[in-house]
Design goal:
Elements: E1 9-12, E2 16-22, E3 28-34, E4 41-46, E5 49-51, E6 54-60, E7 67-73, E8 76-77, E9 82-83, E10 98-99, E11 129-131, E12 154-157, H1 159-163, H2 177-180, H3 183-192, E13 196-199, E14 203-205, H4 209-213, E15 224-230, H5 243-256, E16 260-265, H6 282-290, E17 293-294, E18 297-301, H7 316-331, E19 337-340, H8 343-346, E20 348-349, E21 352-353, H9 358-365, E22 373-376, E23 396-398, H10 400-412, H11 417-424, H12 428-431, E24 441-444, H13 453-456, H14 492-510, E25 515-519, H15 551-566, E26 588-591, H16 600-603, E27 610-615, E28 624-630, E29 636-639, E30 645-650, E31 660-661, E32 667-670, E33 674-680, H17 686-695
Parallel strand pairs: 12-13, 12-25, 13-16, 16-19, 19-22, 22-23, 23-24, 24-25
Antiparallel strand pairs: 1-2, 2-6, 3-4, 3-7, 5-6, 7-11, 8-9, 10-11, 14-15, 17-18, 20-21, 26-27, 27-28, 28-33, 29-32, 30-31, 30-33
Helix pairs in contact: 10-11, 10-14, 14-15
């Protein structure tokens, strides 16, 4: 039966399956059906219907669970960008489930070093298979939390590493989608006050051949090949649900706890790598359409990503695939947003990065994506690849300038107070344009890529030897400080300083305007033993060590998040201006330790490492906040503004209290390497009561 060219992919309607595959340059498309084990090809059906460059056919009697793939021909001509090879079984780009393992990867390479001819080995027996699924799932009363950006606290976490060795998670669920939704995992997230988990890639991804040869794997998962299929490596199997439905159950459970699910997506490149990589899907379906090829060198794909190839989102059908994938994860999987890896690549046109690219314009007008969170990693490795602050309204961006300035100020002592103040105020110098709000800045101290918070104060040199690249990989400019001793030590004074710095950095993150992102495990004191590029370590280097979790630090982070939630001044929805608000308080006043407003020259004084600021009340009866920052190596005395102040948190000590500070003498000492947040509650003055009485 001819079937329909829409929708793309394999769709079961209860009586059979419609298959539809886009290929502009193919001349022959054959659908291959396999037995339940995926080893034996049981049918080969030529798709003869080609409508608007979509090959399609309908097979009655086919049901969910059917394994399939494609063989496609159209000529092997690398000089024209064509690499068709019917000897290679290909995955459906729209496959909603992928099964099997690449146990003989050399069979999947289709050319020799010089592209002289295509490989004649048939790889079907050992190739991955696409699988027809039934999308049905009982969502019940699932309701996305739809947490406002200003209320959001992000928690970047790897599905497996979070619970792989968690003693309170049932063994059968550890390291899985179900494990992330287990009571023990939820208890930790709610204890902290997290509003959204930002999951490292959950699309189907593969390990690079080089890593497999070295006994490693692509643990992070930034090597996608299936943009509609959840990765089965995080499937427990213990729930009795399919991979997709276990993922859905995780989302539903997190939603019930008020936690959003944001997933990291990698649409900039695929696991097929450069021209010498394996042929798994896109290269064999239509290489010259799916990938950007180098001008004048069609044998080689562009490599703006550092991973060997670049998807060609300038082509409408490739852009359609990405948009269909995004909509699928929102409508069918109920995710609440996306963080786009190397997002500059997605917005590249022939002329380079374009704020009005097809991708950015299409996302902007899409009604399904209008209600979800969109976060860009605003750089790639191509020309003019650093584009922080240039994404359009509706987007938030990872702010590495925040990361670097905060690290530099506290740990390397180079950044000035003026630079730090810009970052504390959501980097208005970068984001305050075109109606964008402070929440455009996603602030972070550490992320999956780089040192953990613990390692940031423990190592000055990266220690990536276990990655098998002779410690050449990973960043060299970490802006870290080992507090005088490289690596772990037993010196009480060094350990106390490291912990104090960690608390100050965490407080800085939660007291800054913008959206805070906490690297999962930083609140536990998690270490990667100095590895700042642990992408290939599926072991204790990355797994959360719950047995050694720092319970006091967890409580401290929970207290910080609670303060942020309680005081709207810490998460303003509009830009700070220095203008008067309620009771003649301005929204922000910057203070020298002597108590006077900061002078222009003082902002850039590299010797000055201590200052304060007040945040005016958001309502007429709201409190006034005072934040005092001391990054000096010794204590600093601050002259406080008039009134009675209560300490909300003092990062120089493990425990916190609300002890009142008397201002009879107006002086308070702030310990080195610490932050103190104070509150002055609203107290109605007699004259104000009199005015209210008269007005009534």
């Amino acid at each position: 039966m001819p079937g329909s060219p829409w929708p793309l992919g394999a769709h079961w309607d209860g009586a059979g399956v419609n298959f539809a595959l886009f290929s502009q340059h193919a001349t022959t498309v054959e659908l291959c059906l396999f037995d339940a084990e995926g080893k034996k090809e049981i049918a080969l059906i030529r798709l003869r219907n080609w409508t608007n460059q979509v090959w399609h056919g309908y097979l009655p009697g086919i049901a969910p669970g059917q394994l399939y793939g494609y063989r496609i021909d159209g000529g092997y001509d690398p000089d024209m960008g064509h690499r068709f090879n019917p000897n290679k079984l290909l995955l459906d780009p729209y496959a909603r489930a992928i099964v099997g393992e690449l146990d003989r990867e050399e069979m999947h390479f289709d050319d020799d070093q010089y592209d002289r001819s295509r490989d004649t080995r048939d790889n079907a027996a050992t190739m991955l298979k696409s699988c027809v699924i039934n999308d049905g799932f009982d969502w019940g009363h699932d309701s996305p939390p739809k947490t406002a950006w200003a209320e959001t606290v992000l928690y970047e976490v790897h599905v497996k590493g979070f619970t792989q060795v968690h003693p309170e998670v049932p063994a059968a669920l550890r390291g899985s989608y179900a494990g992330l939704a287990s009571p023990a995992a939820l208890a930790h997230l709610t204890r902290l006050g997290i509003t959204a988990v930002n999951l490292l890639p959950v699309h189907y991804h593969l390990d690079e051949y080089r890593l497999l040869q070295n006994g490693l794997s692509n643990y992070w998962g930034y090597n996608s090949i299936g943009f509609f299929a959840p990765h089965p490596g995080y499937h427990s199997g213990a729930t009795g649900l399919s991979v997709a439905n276990e993922f859905k159950l995780m989302v539903k459970t997190l939603h019930a706890a008020g936690i959003e699910v944001i997933i990291d997506v990698v649409y900039n490149h695929t696991a097929e790598s450069d021209r010498h990589g394996p042929t798994l899907s896109f290269r064999g379906i239509d290489n010259s359409t799916y990938y950007r090829l180098k001008p004048g060198q069609p044998r080689s794909p562009e490599n703006f990503t550092g991973c060997g190839n670049t998807l060609n989102l300038s082509h409408p059908r490739v852009l359609q695939m990405v948009m269909d994938s995004l909509r699928y994860w929102v409508t069918e999987m109920h995710v609440d947003g996306f963080r786009f890896d190397l997002a500059v690549t997605l917005a590249r046109e022939d002329s380079g990065f374009d704020t009005h690219s097809g991708f950015l314009n299409t996302v902007l007008q899409d009604p399904v994506l209008a209600g979800v969170k969109l976060i860009a990693e605003p750089w790639d490795l191509g020309p003019d690849g650093y584009q922080l602050g240039r994404f359009p309204p509706g987007w938030a961006e990872w702010n590495d300038r925040y990361r670097d300035t905060v690290r530099d100020f506290w740990l390397r002592r180079h950044a000035t107070m003026g630079e730090l103040a810009e970052r504390l105020c959501a980097s208005s110098d970068l984001f305050r344009h075109q109606g964008r709000k402070p929440q455009a800045s996603v602030n972070f101290i550490s992320a999956h890529d780089g040192f953990t918070l613990h390692d940031l104060t423990t190592f000055e040199q990266k220690h990536n030897e276990s990655n098998g690249e002779d410690n050449r990989d990973g960043h060299n400019q970490n802006l870290s400080w080992n507090c005088g001793v490289e690596g772990e030590c037993d010196a009480a004074q060094v350990l106390a300083l490291r912990r104090r710095l960690q608390r100050a950095l965490l407080a800085m993150l939660l007291f800054s305007q913008g959206v805070p992102m906490l690297l999962g495990g930083d609140e536990l004191g998690r270490s990667q033993h100095g590895n700042n590029n642990a992408y290939c370590q599926d072991n204790e280097i990355n797994w959360f060590d719950w047995a050694s979790a720092d319970q006091e630090l967890i409580d401290f982070v929970s207290r910080l998040i609670d303060l942020r939630r309680h005081f709207p001044q810490l998460r303003r929805t509009d830009w700070l201006t220095g203008k008067s608000m309620h009771r003649r308080h301005t929204d922000i006043v910057w203070l020298h330790p002597h108590g006077s407003p900061m002078a222009a020259a003082q902002w850039n004084d590299p010797a000055q490492r201590a200052f304060g600021f007040t945040l005016g009340p958001e309502t007429s009866d709201g409190p006034l906040l005072l934040c005092l920052i001391n990054a000096e190596i010794g204590d600093v005395s601050f002259q406080l503004p008039p009134g009675m102040w209560s300490t909300l948190i003092d990062t120089s000590v493990e425990a916190t209290s609300n002890a009142r500070i008397s201002t009879l003498d107006g002086i308070v000492d702030i310990a080195a390497h610490s932050i103190v947040l104070l509150e002055q509650p609203f107290t109605e003055q007699p004259s104000e009561r009199g005015r209210r009485a008269l007005s009534s």
